[in-house]
Fold this sequence. Notes:
The protein is of the alpha/beta class. It has two domains: 5-302, Phosphoenolpyruvate-binding domains (TIM Barrel, Alpha-Beta Barrel), CATH 3.20.20.60; 315-472, no CATH class. It has 20 helices and twelve strands. Strands 3-2-1-10-9-8-7-4 form an eight-stranded parallel β-sheet. It is globular, with a radius of gyration of 23 Å.
Amino acid sequence: xxxxxxxxxxxxxxxxxxxxHDAALGGEDEVVEAFYAFSVLGVDEQMWDFEGKEVDEFxxxxxxxxxGSFFRKRKLGKDFRITPRVPNPSVERAEAKLLxxxxxxxxxxxxxxxLFYGEEIAPIFEVILPMTTSSEEIERVYELxxxxxxxxxxxxxxxxxxxxxxxxxxxxxINIIPxxxxxxxxxxxxxxxxxxxxxxxxxxxxxxLARSDPAMNYGLISAVMYDKYxxxxxxxxxxxxxxxxxxxxxxGGVPFRGHFTPKNVDxxxxxxxxxQTFTVQSSFKYDNEPKEVIKAIEKVNDTKRxxxxxIDERIFEILDKYExxxxxxxxxxxxxxxxxxxxxxxxxxxxxxxxLFGYSREVNGEALPRAIKFTAxxxxxxxxxxxxxxxxxxxxxxxxxxxxxxxxxxxxxxALRFFNPKAASHFKFLEDIAKMQKEMGIEKxxxxxxxxxxxxxxxxxxxxxVEAAGIRGFxx
Length: 476
């Protein structure tokens, strides 16, 4: 069964989980978190993010040792999945060898499972490859595991073959889940996947579409439309190749990052009907009542995916104009975003990273923080990122977009609740947004307004950022 929900380690939450030893979750906390997601929340899959984070590489061993009675009844590798997100050596040179280490750990995890269950079972049999841009990148990881991790067991060391001495390696092959993050990669994802799948006889293929980074790079509306276009083209490819293709979408809580919250799961599934797996990020899990979270996850798990409608490619002309305006506004705001980001608290322990593409983002020539701090910074300034670039679009163009992007007006209304009209006196291009907020009769939160005014006026403190986040119910 392909999972409907994937728990992630993305730190977009305001409140600290009850099991955490520190405000920033470390390796041991994340092992407990994985068990909590499986046993209490009802999540099917845990993404294990090796890409730049201090995660525990013995997660399978620790889960089986600490929670043996639970996992005897429901098996890791069958009922639940641990899916590593590995570094992409094509772009993350400093982390490249961590890919080898992660792949090496897969047979070791299978050994722990065999001892525990008394049968051959692979708790880990898929990996996520971020920032994928070509079929060659996917092929390399697939062949690296098959030929060099598994294949080396047949080589001779002195007087014995490796498998005779150390034991056989299992599983014999793994599935590679490409994660497409750039505009070009998302729009061409069906072609890249077709190249990779040609000549193979897989039971199925999973594919991961980013949502947060495309929104940062191209704006909210473009991010939604590009993913929708990709989903339709992948649906066509599935029919053409007769191989089930199961899309994953990397959604967060705020509209800018996917608007996937316990209260909005129905709308999110309607927005992306052909998506098989939705990511359940930290804010979803910890900024809401556990009963609401469990109920929402049950709803997602019980809902079957549907077909996604076609996208009229003429809409891309509207997006070009929108992106041009979004880029201009972002360039003006970039220094303020960087400054406020320093006051946004971290919720996960990350490795040191200096200039790594995966961790210090450059958007349209501007160095900016990662998506969560980016979003939190703009909300803290009273300038939700959802409203950037909107002034470039006419009412008729917005209506045209809303025919495809069903939640457009709902998402804009949500963001306008936290827009501070005083920001228009700092940034002229926001005057149109202030008018829109007034015309739509959006009710503002006065406490949030007061805090964001202080931050706008230069009082940038972590306590204010956290207080504003508490009012909204999310960090970023």
